[in-house]
Amino acid sequence: EIVLTQSPGTLSLSPGERATLSCRASQSVSSNFLAWYQQKPGQAPRLLIYGASSRATGISDRFSGSVSGTDFTLTISRLEPEDFAVYYCHQYGSSPLTFGGGTKVEIK
Amino acid sequence: EVQLLESGGGLVQPGGSLRLSCTVSGFTFSTYAMSWVRQAPGKGLEWVSAIGDSGGRTYYADSVRGRFSISRDNSKNTLHLQMNSLRADDTAVYFCAKGAYGSGHSSYFDYWGQGTLVTVSS
Q1: A92, CA 20 to 30 Å: which among B27, B59, B109, B122?
Q2: What's phi and psi for A26, nearest 5 deg?
Q3: Class of residue A9 by CB neighbours under 10 A (exposed 0-12, middle 13-18, buried 19+)
Q4: Chain A interface, mutation test: which of B108, B109, B112, most A Cβ atoms within 10 Å?
Q5: Cβ distance of B95 and A45 shorter than 8 Å
Q6: What is the DSSP letter of A42?
């Protein structure tokens, strides 16, 4: 099973700042099959990024994903008020599908 | 507009059973794999089970294999999760999620339902 470790657990930032979220895989993720989701309280997760760096339909270009080896990064270039939420990474390259523990982006 | 609506959650005693359903609209249900993903209160996401587009292939997390059964009725655009021998650690919000592909289960999830809460307690 691929374990995904997200860091930091909590990121305290101000609107307009840049957010950098990390997701490290315990082993290689096949074809960089990694997605990022945003979840707000009481809501379902929303797909942001798939294939490590492809933005989902309707997602702002403030969100970008990158990969280096087994290290995946989600970057939010300029935080808007609606971006404060919990973010999860998810690998779908091998079974079982697994999720990271999440990073909470909170208002500083 | 793609919509997924879960139902069937509730309070059940340990050892009991429950059947969840997810009714979908806005896309051709029969051509996409579907999954169930759960989230325990205050915790992260856990993939539970998946089923291929035709229903011929099913996949389970080790934590539920042998207790849960996933199925689909493509004529009714409905996904099911039969949960037996429920335990306290099965308590969670259960989301149905649409896979981006038809076959297999190795897919990201492009649409999610709002979830249904399952509470296992005596």
Answers
A1: B27
A2: -75, -15
A3: exposed
A4: B108
A5: yes
A6: T
